[in-house]
Specification:
The protein is mainly alpha-helical and 129 residues long. Helix content is 64%, strand content 0%. It has seven helices and no strands. Helix 2 packs across helix 3.
Length: 129
């Protein structure tokens, strides 16, 4: 960032989101075996960016909040309570989520591929009206 580029100050709400994110990370890092560097690697960002988000240097946008929530295995509303909760998952939906979380990277790619073709499969197996 050049010397002439200034970031806008974060709002109190944005600072509170960053504080909640940092608290979640600190509570879960040992359980999940995470460091800021590993978390950043899993999310496709640098350790520096992770630290800047957690320390309220840069604001968390919705896609980043969702990425942190997925990596930290929490609901995005724990980071930002202003985001409405999703409806509870059915047992079948929870099995899919659990399978994805437990899968290797190759398995995750396979599951995502299967999800991409599922709508076409459903259409092709529908009776003609």
């Amino acid at each position: 960032m050049s010397m002439s580029t200034k970031r806008r100050p974060l709002t109190e709400s944005e600072k509170a989101c960053a504080a909640r994110l940092k608290a979640i990370y600190e509570a879960k890092r040992d359980q999940l075996g995470l460091s800021q560097e590993r978390l950043g690697s899993e999310m496709g960002m640098s350790q520096s960016a992770v630290g800047q988000y957690m320390n309220a240097k840069i604001p968390l946008n919705l896609p980043v909040k969702i990425s942190f929530a997925m990596a930290l295995q929490c609901d995005v509303s724990e980071i930002d309570p202003e985001i409405p909760l999703a409806p509870p998952l059915s047992p079948a939906e929870q099995k899919i989520v659990d399978a994805y979380r437990a899968a290797s990277e190759e398995g995750k790619d396979w599951l995502l591929g299967a999800a991409a073709v599922a709508p076409a499969y459903k259409r092709s197996n529908q009776p003609d009206s």
